[in-house]
Amino acid sequence: MGGNFCYNLAEAIRRNKMKRVKLGQAEIIIAVFSLVLIFVMGCEPYAKGNKDLRDGNYAEAAAYFEGKLKSKPDDPVLNNQLAYSYAKIGKFDLAVKSYQKALQLKPDYPEAHYNLGYLYMNRPFMQLQDAIKEFDQAIKLKPDYAKAYNNRGLTYVYAGRFDLAQKDLEKAISLDAQNQTYRNNLDYCKQMAELGQAVTSPKQETKTEPPAASQPPEKKP
């Protein structure tokens, strides 16, 4: 079935507009059937906004998530997705505020910590210590978070702390041995260490990692 059906179905379920049957067994059958439609057939909450993100329509995505937040201001996933949209259209201060709101609502949200750290490590901020703190939290919550190790390692490179950088980049490679970007970044770190100088030219991965909006914030991703 098409994306519009998935989107409309997800909305109906989320707003409790689907007909509910009070008999326990029948209600369970309806719930299971709904989950099958959502997860097996690829439906997801906030499908339109996430499609806009995937298609690079970041302004449209931001407008969509802004609209959704009017009725669900305390949804950490929505705040994270809006922050990601803002960052992609250059509204960096608004992005920081939205990431911080997501983390205020759900402190144990590794993707939001990662995304905020990624924002801090780049221009216009280059707030390296703040970036490291956010990556620290992401890794604490998700110890196998290869991207967080990679970008914390690169932040250490920018700060001239090459021993810590090499350790993090090697850890990222151990978690994702097929990722050539991590290997390239380790080589880059070693080259800069030989020069003995801090680097301020970002070479990190090109994408942040918003959580799949089909999943609510995980309760521990």
Topology:
Elements lengths: L2 H12 L9 H17 L6 H8 L3 H14 L4 H13 L3 H14 L4 H12 L6 H14 L4 H14 L2 H14 L4 H16 L26
Helix pairs in contact: 3-4, 4-5, 5-6, 6-7, 7-8, 7-9, 8-9, 9-10, 10-11
Short note summarizing the structure:
The protein is mainly alpha-helical. Helices cover 67% and strands 0% of the residues.
Q: How would you sum up this structure, described in words?
A:
By secondary structure, this protein is mainly α. The protein folds into two domains: 1-43, no CATH class; 56-221, Tetratricopeptide repeat domain (Serine Threonine Protein Phosphatase 5, Tetratricopeptide repeat, Alpha Horseshoe). The chain has eleven helices and no strands. It has helices spanning 3-14, 24-40, 47-54, 58-71, 76-88, 92-105, 110-121, 128-141, 146-159, 162-175, 180-195. Helix 3 packs antiparallel against helix 4. The longest helix is centred in the N-terminal third of the chain and has 17 residues, at 24-40. It starts with a helix and ends in a 26-residue tail after the last helix. 39% of the residues are buried. Mean pLDDT is 80; it is low at 1-5, 17-23, 37-42 and 210-221.
Calculate the mean pLDDT score and round it: 80
Structural domain count: 2
The CATH homologous superfamily name of the largest domain equals Tetratricopeptide repeat domain
SSE run: HHHHHHHHHHH
The stretches of 5 or more residues where confidence is low (pLDDT under 50) are: 1-5, 17-23, 37-42, 210-221
Please give the CATH architecture of the largest domain: Alpha Horseshoe
CATH class of the largest domain: Mainly Alpha
Radius of gyration: 20 Å
End-to-end span in angstroms?
28 Å
Range of helix content: 55-70%
Question: What's the helix count?
Answer: 11
The structure class reads mainly alpha
The proportion of residues in beta strands is under 5%
Biggest β-sheet description? none
Shape: elongated
**Tally of DSSP β-strands:** 0
Per the CATH scheme, the topology name of the largest domain is Serine Threonine Protein Phosphatase 5, Tetratricopeptide repeat
